[in-house]
TrEMBL record, chain B:
Keywords: Cell membrane, Membrane, Transmembrane, Transmembrane helix, Transport. It is a multi-pass membrane protein. Belongs to the binding-protein-dependent transport system permease family. One of its GO terms (biological process) is transmembrane transport. The keyword Cytoplasm does not apply. This is Sugar ABC transporter permease. The chain crosses the membrane at residues 12-37, 74-93, 105-128, 155-178, 209-229, 263-283. It comes from Paenibacillus montanisoli. The keyword Transport applies. Residues 68-284 form the ABC transmembrane type-1 domain. It is found in: Cell membrane.
Length: 440, 295
């Protein structure tokens, strides 16, 4: 009887615990990196479907050459992926992937405390790749001289425009050297439902990109708040003027409708980095052959013809049970000249890898060159890359959005001038920084 | 031997109920106590004792109070819009000529409640989109200018109330229907004979008898409003919405823990929030005068 009761108790407890289990059956790197078949499984998390497309091609080739390795690519929603990795890293690493695509905007959250990624300096040095990527593209993922992520793209921005429409209107875009010239010339092509560029209720992204074009940044090179400056005010005022004059839309459609707006001709130009153009090619295929790209028009006296926007570094998880194998795949996808050139062909990521930028294969015909009317777009990115501004990192950078959001609706409704708005955002940001520091 | 058998019999019931308590101790009590310990610490990876400083920060944290204020707005909207509609529908469903179809209507209204909050959030995000959303298209037919339901801070809470109305109307109808079963028909009949109008019968007979269930419904409503997470999180694109108008206490403590890696402060936020919910609950019980009802 006693035994029966004990057994029943134990059994019911096990059933209860099994019910509580949240294990979805996915393999985790730290505890099941090796499979019974003897193959090692390397799991890679990414948030960008374009990246997944590239990784899938690389996986097929890599697995052919490495029959003992199984690569598992998992596509997750942006916020969910980083939140999930934070939880995993705070709870011992069970279920962590071996490799994870860390978007530069998400990286600062991992800077506090122990960074949950493996420093790559030694791996790079051993492979003789320490200088393979310009320092500026690695700074975004570097803490205390430790490099935690390898950037894949240069992220240099260009101006893209509907060549068919501008040509039909007799407008020679390459000859328009300033934003003022470009917008004035575009006037005949717009009306109340047609805009030159897509704007939104939130100017932050556009502001940051244009600020970097002017040599500024949200974070200064010495880690201080850098946007509430005369240049910052000038940039925000320019965005406001564009909206007031109907060059820039005041709202932005979301999801597939965003690309549909380009297909329908609601927006006839855009500026953005290589990866943005790659998305345009994929999402608005009907416009193939109708676009062209040129350097960005100039704004203020210190502006350059390009900017940088975004970036993603592939990081090696600190919890990976197969670090060497994972590093080998990272090297294969991000530091191999031929593969990086392929990434440009597949998803238009212009290489951050210096050896790849000199490859003649970048200039071969591809879906992207066809999309841009046969233009050698790689040459454009290569030329712009030499003037590309730097992008600085700070632990508090993700707080900028919080401070910005607090005042933006009032600013957009005309209740604040650009000066007052940037002043308020800086003040709020400083108080958020102070509060976090005080709690440390 | 007999004494052994009797001891075993005494232990047996405790063994039968022990799985729940063991699981609760591990998954409920331990996190609660650990959370309290964390709330007295500071640090990210290694913790040092910080006394009550995290609690002092909570009281000075404008963001937390903004989140509480958003919860209050949602609670007011739920109390004064969703609950009266739920009561109205349940009174209708309780009419004799509908009672045969009561089950069908109850299921009809209840279905949204069992739909995943994430799925509901995504669908409503599409419906509430300013330029191409269904709701604005309908309003456009009546000449209403497009509303930035999720872009304009003045409209985000109304948008959330619309969503909550759709999702939680059914469960509140069920609660009210359950409460209405306890209203004796004889009392209504007696009131009718005495010449009471339908409004008087509702106010003086039905409503007082619904008070016990109302206490529960209102508390559920308050708890759900202040504890709002999934739907607001999805509507705000995993953020806090324009002018932080979609931040709620739970989403703020989630942000502090899993995005800012500030688990100690997040724990303090959790404790302050729980205490405030208890205070609100007590005030509500006092207002509903539950003790008098029991007496």
């Amino acid at each position: 009887m006693k035994k029966a009761i004990s057994l029943l108790t134990a059994l019911s407890f096990c059933v209860y615990l099994a019910g509580c289990s949240t294990d979805t059956g996915t393999s985790s790197s730290s505890d099941s990196g090796s499979e019974s078949s003897g193959k090692k499984t390397i799991t890679l998390w990414t948030f960008a479907d374009t990246h997944k497309q590239y990784y899938d091609e690389m996986k097929a080739n890599y697995e052919k050459d490495h029959p003992d390795i199984n690569i598992k690519i998992e596509l997750l929603e942006y916020s969910a992926m980083f939140d999930k990795y934070t939880v995993i890293s705070q709870s011992g690493g069970k279920g962590a992937p071996d490799l994870i695509d860390v978007e530069q905007g998400a990286f600062p959250r991992y800077i506090k405390g122990d960074v949950p990624f493996e420093p790559l300096n030694d791996y790079m040095e051993t492979a003789g790749l320490s200088d393979a990527i310009p320092k500026g593209r690695l700074d975004l993922y570097t803490v205390n001289s430790n490099i935690y992520g390898i950037e894949i793209a240069a992220c240099v921005s260009a101006l893209y425009y509907r060549k068919d429409l501008y040509d039909a209107a007799g407008i020679d875009v390459p000859s328009l050297k300033t934003w003022n010239d470009f917008m004035e010339a575009s006037k005949p092509l717009i009306d109340k439902d047609k805009f030159v560029l897509s704007g939104s209720e939130k100017d932050q992204g556009l502001f940051e990109q244009l600020l970097r074009q002017e040599g500024g940044d949200v974070v200064t090179s010495d880690g201080k708040i850098g946007f509430n400056t005369p240049t910052g005010i000038e940039v925000l005022t320019r965005i406001k003027d564009w909206k007031d004059q109907g060059f820039l839309s005041k709202s932005m459609p979301e999801g597939p409708q965003y690309w549909e707006a380009f297909t329908n001709g609601k927006f006839i130009a855009a500026f953005g980095p290589d990866w943005w153009a790659g998305q345009l090619v994929q999402n608005s295929p009907d416009l193939s052959g109708k676009w062209a790209a040129v350097p960005m028009p100039l704004g203020g006296p210190s502006s350059v013809q390009t900017s940088v926007n975004g970036g993603t570094g592939l990081a090696l998880s600190k919890f990976s049970a197969n670090k060497d194998a994972a590093w080998d795949f990272l090297k294969y996808t991000h530091l191999d000249t031929d593969n990086i050139v392929e990434s440009f062909r597949i998803i238009n990521l212009f290489p951050a890898l210096t050896s790849a930028t000199q490859s003649p294969d970048l200039h071969k015909e591809s879906d992207t060159t066809k999309y841009f009317g046969g233009q050698d777009i790689a040459q454009l990115y290569a030329d712009l890359g030499t003037q590309a501004p730097s992008q600085n990192q700070a632990w508090w950078r993700s707080l900028v959005g919080k401070a910005w959001d607090k005042f933006e609706p009032d600013y957009q409704n005309g209740k604040m001038t650009p000066e007052a708005f940037l002043g308020n955002v800086e003040k709020e940001l400083q108080s958020l920084i102070d509060a976090e520091q005080a709690r440390k | 031997m007999t004494s052994h058998a009797s001891a075993r019999l005494k232990i047996a019931p405790f063994l039968f109920i022990s799985p729940f308590f063991i699981a609760y101790a591990i998954f409920g009590l331990y996190p609660i106590l650990y959370g309290f310990w964390l709330s007295l610490m500071k640090g990210t990876d290694s913790y040092t004792f910080a006394g009550l400083s995290n609690y002092l920060f909570v009281f000075k944290d404008g963001f937390f109070w903004k989140a509480m204020w958003n919860g209050t707005k949602l609670a007011l909207g739920s109390l004064f819009l969703i609950l009266p509609v739920a009561l109205g529908v349940s009174l209708l469903l309780n009419r004799p000529y509908i009672s045969k179809k009561k089950g069908f209507f109850a299921t009809f209204f209840f279905t949204p409640n069992i739909t995943s909050a994430v799925a509901v959030g995504i669908i409503f995000k599409l419906l509430l989109e300013r330029d191409s959303g269904f709701l604005n298209s309908i309003l456009g037919v009546f000449g209403v200018d497009p509303i930035g339901w999720l872009k304009d801070p003045a409209w985000t809470i109304p948008a959330l109330i619309i969503l909550c109305g759709w999702k939680y109307l059914g469960v509140n109808i069920l609660f009210f229907l359950a409460g209405l079963q306890n209203v004796p028909n004889e009392l209504i009949e007696a009131a009718k004979i005495d010449g009471a109008t339908p409004a008087q019968r509702l106010w003086y007979v039905t409503m007082p008898l619904l008070r016990p269930i109302m206490t529960f419904i209102v508390f559920q409503c308050l708890l759900g409003s202040y504890g709002m997470f999934s739907e607001a999180f999805i509507l705000a694109n995993s953020g806090f919405g324009p002018e932080n108008s979609l931040v709620f206490p739970t989403s703020y403590l989630y942000d502090q823990a899993f995005r800012r890696q500030d688990f100690t402060y997040s724990s303090a936020l959790g404790y302050v929030f729980t205490l405030m919910m208890l205070v609100i609950g007590f005030i509500q019980l006092k207002m509903f005068n539950l003790k008098d009802q029991e007496g």
